[in-house]
Every structure is written in C-alpha cells, then in structure tokens.
C-alpha cells in the first residue's frame, strides 16, 4: 500500500461496520483526532503499530464492544499525548491495566479481564470525568490517588462525545483493604461511587460526607 495515496483523515467513524481486524491503512494516519471502531467483532490483539497512529493528535478512541484479547507490546503509559477519551469496555482484554495519558478525562475498561493492581502512575492523570474499571479481575488495594479525582472531576467535551457524568466505578473486582479518602473538600462533583462486590473492609472514610452530589 502506497502511504502517499492514502488521504489524511481527522474524523473516522467505523462503528458497526463488521470489521474483523484493525484496518491496515490506519498505520499511515497521523492527523486523526477521533477514531471509533466499536461494535465490530474485531478479535486478536491490538497491533503494536496502533501505538504510533496519530500519536500527536488523537483525542478520542473507542474500540469497545469487540472480541479483543490483549495488546501487542503494550507501553506502560498510553502514548497518545492529547488523548482525552478511551473506551475499551466489553472486550476480552487481559494483562496489566494500561496507565492513562496525562490529559485523560474519560477512561472505560469495564467488562474485561485485566489483572493485578492499579499502578500508582494512574495518579498522574488528574482530570477524570468518568473512570470505570468495573467487572474485571483487578486486585490489591485501591490507590490513594483515587481521592484526588473526586476534587478535579469536571464536565468536559471529549471529541464529539459530551460527558455529563462524574463517576468512579471499580465494582466487581478483587480489591482489598480500606476505601481511600474521597471528596476531600466540600463541593466535590462526584455523583456516583461504586465499589461494590470487592473485598474491602474497615470503616467508611469521613470524607464521604463532603460528596454532596451523591
């Protein structure tokens, strides 16, 4: 395929198009800011060349509702420097949880099979609007940095998707220990916290009284 003959795209929606694998022409795209490949039945691994696709411009990526099993040579931290929204939910993804990029506001990886603990590096992304890690095989203690998100969550546009939720969900995993302090100041924007079906113990933190919108 001649890369020079492929048009440079900025917005590409290929959801529900019966695509079974990642289109090869995407490896030559360097100007995309919106990419939707959801509801396609794609299987296998996310190819390693995807990490370089529109690395400097991509803001929103949706590959949810597929049959993807994992990532080929995954990086520790997601490489897209401008990425604000990532939906990986309802796949079969296994392995360690990918660490979101600094600007991430919308991160859904629910209903998959990632294992292990949440990396403390996730605390570097401090502007979450919606963080959904529910229905996975994650374990260990919930990191204290989750308390930071409850004070910085804000309504924001992610690509062409308007997010109106301030949600934290880690339900149905294998987390243990105590619930970290959330809503550490009055006026937190959180409207939902779901930590059900884990192995948490101890008392609820007093800071929950500051979650005025729950």
Question: Distance between the terminal alpha carbons, to the nearest Å?
Answer: 53 Å
Please tell me how large the radius of gyration is.
18 Å
| Element-by-element helix/strand order | EEEEEEEEEEEHEEEEEE
Largest sheet: 8 strands, parallel
Main location: membrane
Organism: Rosa chinensis
Subcellular location: Membrane
Protein name: Putative leucine-rich repeat domain, L domain-containing protein
What does this structure look like?
The chain is mainly β and 214 residues long. The chain has one domain: Leucine-rich repeat, LRR (right-handed beta-alpha superhelix) (Alpha-Beta Horseshoe). Helix content is 3%, strand content 26%. It is built from 1 helix and 17 strands. It has one helix at 146-152, and strands at residues 11-13, 34-36, 43-46, 60-62, 67-71, 85-87, 94-95, 106-108, 113-116, 130-132, 137-141, 156-158, 161-163, 167-169, 174-177, 192-194, 199-200. The strands form 4 sheets. It has an 8-stranded parallel sheet, with no helix packed on it. The relative contact order is 0.11. Residues 151-165 have low confidence and may be disordered.
Short description:
The protein has 214 residues and is mainly beta. It is built from one helix and 17 strands. An eight-stranded parallel sheet has the order 1-2-4-6-8-10-14-16, with no helix packed on it. Strands 7-9-11-15-17 form a five-stranded parallel sheet, with no helix packed on it.
């Amino acid at each position: 395929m001649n890369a020079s003959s492929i048009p440079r795209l900025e917005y590409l929606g290929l959801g529900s198009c019966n695509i079974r694998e990642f289109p090869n022409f995407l490896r030559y795209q360097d100007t995309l800011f919106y990419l939707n490949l959801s509801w396609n039945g794609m299987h296998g691994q996310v190819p390693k060349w995807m990490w370089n696709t529109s690395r400097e411009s991509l803001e929103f990526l949706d590959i949810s509702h597929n049959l993807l099993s994992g990532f080929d040579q995954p990086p520790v931290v997601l490489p897209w420097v401008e990425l604000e929204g990532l939906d990986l939910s309802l796949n079969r993804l296994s392995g360690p949880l990918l660490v979101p990029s600094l600007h991430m506001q919308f991160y859904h990886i629910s209903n998959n099979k990632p294992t292990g603990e949440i990396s403390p590096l996730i605390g570097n992304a401090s502007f979450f609007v919606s963080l959904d890690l529910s229905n996975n095989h994650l374990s260990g203690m919930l990191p204290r940095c989750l308390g930071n998100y409850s004070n910085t969550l804000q309504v924001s546009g992610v690509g062409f998707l308007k997010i109106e939720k301030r949600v934290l969900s880690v339900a149905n995993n294998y987390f243990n220990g105590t619930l970290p302090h959330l809503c550490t100041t009055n006026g937190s924007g959180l409207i939902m916290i779901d930590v059900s079906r884990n192995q948490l113990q101890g008392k609820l933190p007093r800071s929950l009284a500051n979650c005025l919108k729950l």
